Amino acid sequence: MKKLLLSFSLSVVFFQTTFAFSNPQAQGSESPFWVQLIPLALVFAIFFFLLILPQQRKMKKHRAMVESLKKGDSVILSSGIHGKVNRLAEDRLTLYVEIADKVVVCVNKDSVVQVPTKLE
């Protein structure tokens, strides 16, 4: 049954395309160029609002969180290490995190994933 339906639909498509190319009236009824761009613009708009805009918001929120770090804040790094900010480096790109008593590691600020609150 599926083969019959598939062959029927293929024959209908083939018939429509051959009829459209053989019919001179159908060839002159092409839509304007700007009408053909509407689906492309819609796809771009959907892509922008569903993927790009939320990612930009997330990046802005993360940047604000990283810039607000201060000494004594608890942090979770991207590697899963939990620690406290010991000091901020002068270069503004790194910070020193104390992960155990007298164990301090230098990490990139971008590796901070979360600043847990007191409730967490």
Verbal overview:
This protein has 120 residues and is α+β, with helices and mostly antiparallel strands. The chain has a domain at 1-30. The protein is 50% helix and 22% strand. The chain has helices at residues 2-22, 24-27, 33-67, and strands spanning 74-77, 82-88, 94-100, 103-108, 112-114. The longest helix has 35 residues, at 33-67. It is rod-shaped. Residues 2-6 have low confidence and may be disordered.
Secondary structure elements and pairings:
Layout: H1 2-22, H2 24-27, H3 33-67, E1 74-77, E2 82-88, E3 94-100, E4 103-108, E5 112-114
Antiparallel strand pairs: 1-2, 1-5, 2-3, 3-4
In short:
The chain is an alpha+beta fold. The protein has 3 helices and 5 strands; from the N terminus they run αααβββββ. β2 and β3 form a beta hairpin.
- Sum up the overall morphology in one term: rod-shaped
Mean pLDDT: 81
H/E element sequence: HHHEEEEE
- The total beta strand count reads 5
Stretches with pLDDT under 50, minimum 5 residues: 2-6
Output the radius of gyration. Answer: 30 Å
Helicity, in percent? 40-55%
Largest sheet: 5 strands, antiparallel
What's the number of helices?
A: 3
Proportion of residues in β-strands = 15-25%
Give the helix/strand class.
Answer: alpha+beta
Output the keywords.
rod-shaped; disordered N terminus; single chain; 120 residues; alpha+beta; five-stranded antiparallel beta sheet
